Amino acid sequence: MSITSQADLTGLQQISAAVATTLQQMRDYAQPGMSTKELDEYGGRLLTALGARSAPRLTYGFPGWTCISVNQEVAHGIPAAHKVLREGDLINIDVSAEMGGYWADNGGSFVLGADVHQHQPLVDASRQILRTAISRIRGGVRIADIGGLIEDEARKAGFRVIKNLVGHGIGRSLHEEPKEIPNYYDRHNLKRFKTNSVVAVETFISTRANFAHQLGDGWTLATKDGSFVAQHEHTLVVTDGQPLILTAANGIWD
Q1: Is 117 annotated as belonging to a binding site?
Q2: 3-state class of 56 per DSSP?
Q3: Which residues of this UniProt protein bind a divalent metal cation 1 (predicted)?
């Protein structure tokens, strides 16, 4: 969507604050021995209390309030009672929701407790690469150039990118134009970021794999080779200068 009024901006700020707060509090609530279902239900209670509706449930009938992916799972992980979190797990929580006709999306990966499996460098790279990419986004910049930047920064850090998961436009629905904001340079993508548009920009930084594959549950995406992936995501408004980061309250850069 393109913001055309103060009401638009206020509505987006309100739903963005809701998903950002939910993500931040879910991250703080997670602990070893807890199931991903328990963590998700906590997130669902937070969203409901804030007056927000889970976007994946609303849009796709997803069997959870949020997406929680653990270790080799990359995205769209289904919360489950049998998935028990352990010290050192690489966890990704993605929270998207709707409120008052406006939508926002954010996510972040983190290491649970002590970094016994040495995932922190991957998490740190994903966080910093997202920060660098967002700092370069403004009206008129080619989407492909931001993808190339993400890919180059990942390579410099000793990592790769997942190519079949992308950022996207957002605002009046969960997925809008531009439909794809990839993590790599696609010379065929001639689209540019538009001033006053709303986008969800996300990194998918991988230890080895370039693609995520759907598991038999029909939702969860995971690597086939045992690679680990860190994802971080903000919803933002594109301007002629530095973007307005609507989900800054999630604390993924803290």
Answers
A1: no
A2: helix
A3: 94, 105, 233
DSSP 11-22: HHHHHHHHHHHH
pTM value > 0.85: yes
The answer to the question of whether 233 is labelled as a binding residue is yes
pLDDT tens track of the chain, all 254 residues? 999 999 999 999 999 999 999 999 999 999 999 999 999 999 999 999 999 999 999 999 999 999 999 999 999 999 999 999 999 999 999 999 999 999 999 999 999 999 999 999 999 999 999 999 999 999 999 999 999 999 999 999 999 999 999 999 999 999 999 999 999 999 999 999 999 999 999 999 999 999 999 999 999 999 999 999 999 999 999 999 999 999 999 999 99
202 among annotated binding-site residues: yes
The DSSP code sequence of 100-123 is TTEEEEEEEEEE-SS-TT--HHHH
* Residue 168 assigned ligand-binding role: yes
Phi, psi of 221 (to 5 degrees): -105, 135
